[in-house]
């Protein structure tokens, strides 16, 4: 495994995320229990954000000085590797392991909206958002990478600020 913390922690975080996604699948949280899955699907992103801080902190370990730029670079490298890998994992999950994911999630969401007496406009907006985010189209995976990366950049900047040494 790489000695560089950004690469090491990106790989570790990807491995944990993959195992978590498989656990979610086996528990039915992304197939028949979207009521639970809507919350458990957040864990890989929260883990990713925490691990950016771990990466930046470990990158500064043993150094007399650690600039904002160095910290941001390490967080950014970790973020880009993780986001690319995570997008590939989600792609493979939706295309191979759970090709019904979008349809079951859409049905669950529509049921919840109807149960809560949502307006036609609210339902249409929710369906449009789901289409962009979860449909399994190439653009949905590009958006997953882009939005995850944006959050990675933000968290990298915050972590670099927190852990810089003068």
Can you walk through the features of this model?
The mean pLDDT is 95. The protein has helices at residues 5-27, 34-40, 43-60, 68-97, 101-115, 120-134, 138-163. Helix 3 (43-60) packs parallel to helix 7 (138-163) and helix 4 (68-97) runs antiparallel to helix 7. It contains seven helices and no strands. By secondary structure, the protein is mainly alpha-helical.
Count of helical segments? 7
- Broad shape: elongated
Order of helices and strands: HHHHHHH
Mean pLDDT: 95
Proportion of helical residues: over 70%
Largest sheet: none
Report the portion of residues in β strands. Answer: under 5%
Oligomer: single chain
Structural class: mainly alpha
**CA radius of gyration:** 18 Å
Point out poorly predicted stretches: none
Terminal-residue CA separation: 30 Å
Number of strands: 0
What attributes does this structure have?
166 residues, mainly alpha, 7 helices, 81% helix, elongated
């Amino acid at each position: 495994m790489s000695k560089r913390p950004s690469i090491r922690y990106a790989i570790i975080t990807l491995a944990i995320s993959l195992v978590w996604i498989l656990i979610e699948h086996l528990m039915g949280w992304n197939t028949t229990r979207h009521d639970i899955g809507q919350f458990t699907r957040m864990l890989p992103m929260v883990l990713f954000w925490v691990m950016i801080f771990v990466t930046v902190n470990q990158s500064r370990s043993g150094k007399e000085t650690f600039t904002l730029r160095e910290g941001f670079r390490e967080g950014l490298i970790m973020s880009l590797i993780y986001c690319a890998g995570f997008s590939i994992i989600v792609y493979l999950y939706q295309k191979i392991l759970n090709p019904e994911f979008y349809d079951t999630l859409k049905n669950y969401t529509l049921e919840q909206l109807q149960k809560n007496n949502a307006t036609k406009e609210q339902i249409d907006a929710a369906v449009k958002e789901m289409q962009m985010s979860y449909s399994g189209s190439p653009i949905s995976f590009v958006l997953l990478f882009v939005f995850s990366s944006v959050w990675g950049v933000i968290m990298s900047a915050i972590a670099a600020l927190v852990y810089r040494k003068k």
